[in-house]
Design goal:
231 residues, single chain, 35% helix, 7-stranded parallel sheet, globular, alpha/beta
């Protein structure tokens, strides 16, 4: 297994053009992985082991075409995400559809295609959020992130006999461009008790561990990286 880890590690990572997805892709590249990045906007990573694929993850056909054209996948990391917020009574109902398609439908479609092809030791990691536990003015966003936990726990039970793990990494407010998204202007991020935002590289380090052989006994878990925000 150790030898296979060195020679046959290929991760599909969504959302590698910025933020957490970019940090995950870079960390995996630094660790010797091959990485295929699925992005709507051009990726800023330039490395021999990185292959960028332009794809709209809300487009059902496009995302399936993209994953079907990608071979030898040993890990899937769904990090692509968007933020929409609003107060109950004045919610933008169209935002629910968009959030669901990016966070949940894309995760389902990609995992459904990848899981049957994964070998023993394969990995699936979904990037969730502490908002899944409930945050005022982020009900629609939190609901989609909570759905990822249900998916991961169900898939973990199905895939455990094959030696494949599925987990959710749930960060608190993270220092990414998403914090400056005008769509969340009414929802100010809360600084965790450690006195600073979570760094994307810290999330990437946790994901890298979950993809490693050392994490083979961790599956079906929602792991918070929150700087004490969930205490």
């Amino acid at each position: 297994m150790r030898q296979r880890e060195k020679t046959f590690r290929h991760a599909v990572v969504t959302g590698t053009s910025s933020g957490i997805g970019q940090a995950i892709a870079q960390r995996l590249l630094d660790d010797g992985w091959r990485v295929t990045g699925f992005d709507l906007t051009p990726a800023s990573i330039h490395a021999a082991a990185f292959h960028a694929v332009s794809v709209d993850l809300t487009d059902a056909k496009a995302r399936l075409d993209a994953i079907d054209a990608t071979s030898d996948v040993t890990a899937l990391v769904h990090a692509a995400g968007i933020m929409r917020g609003g107060r109950l009574g004045s919610l933008d109902l169209s935002a629910s559809d968009l959030l669901w398609r990016v966070h949940v439908d894309a995760a389902i479609a990609l995992a459904d295609r990848v899981a049957p092809r994964l070998i023993e030791g394969g990995r699936i990691v979904l990037i969730g959020s502490r908002a899944a536990r409930g945050v005022a003015n982020r009900s629609q966003y939190g609901a989609t992130k909570a759905a990822l936990v249900g998916l991961a726990r169900s898939w973990a039970k199905e895939l455990a006999p094959r030696g494949i793990t599925v987990n959710v990494v749930a960060p608190a407010a993270t220092d990414t461009a998403m914090l400056a998204d005008p769509e969340r202007s009414t929802v100010a991020p809360a600084t965790p008790p450690i006195g600073r935002l979570i760094r994307p590289e810290e999330v990437a380090a946790l994901v890298a561990f979950l993809l490693s052989p050392d994490a083979a006994a961790i599956t079906g878990q929602e792991i918070a990286i929150c700087g004490g925000a969930s205490l």
